[in-house]
Amino acid sequence: MYESQIASSITSFAEYHRRKKRTKPYTEADIKHVPCFKCGKPSDQQWQICSLDNEYKGLCQRCDIELNEVVLLFMGIPKHEVNIIIEKYSPKIVEIHYRPPGREHG
Ligand SMILES: [Zn+2]
Predict the structure, then answer these.
(1) Distance 45 CA to ligand 1 centre (A)
(2) Ligand 1 centre distance from Cα of residue 39 (Å)
(3) What is the mean pLDDT of each run of 10 residues along the chain (106 residues)?
(4) How far is the CA of 34 from the centre of ligand 1 (A)?
């Protein structure tokens, strides 16, 4: 069995999830054990990425917020509105961990 071969050849749960292709969403309990796809910290959210064969990738709170901001800006929402949306989305995390960059994109 392919999955069990992968699981036995690697040691940590984190490494297992880094290599394994995940096509179903993680449960709320499992996502905490998945390393953030961007920075490796414990994940809090997950994104399904169509261009990676619809794989689910875990993201920590900070990276999830940054990705949300990038998406909103890409959709053409003005920066000042994006800042308000992001602060409403996760005010505690924005306050503690994340300050929007001072310079505008582009
Ligand atoms: Zn992260």
Answers:
(1) 10
(2) 4
(3) 47 60 88 93 92 90 94 96 90 58 46
(4) 11
> For the chain, what are the domain ranges?
63-96
98 Cα distance to chain centroid:
15
pLDDT score recorded for residue 90:
79
- Residue 51 is classified by DSSP as G
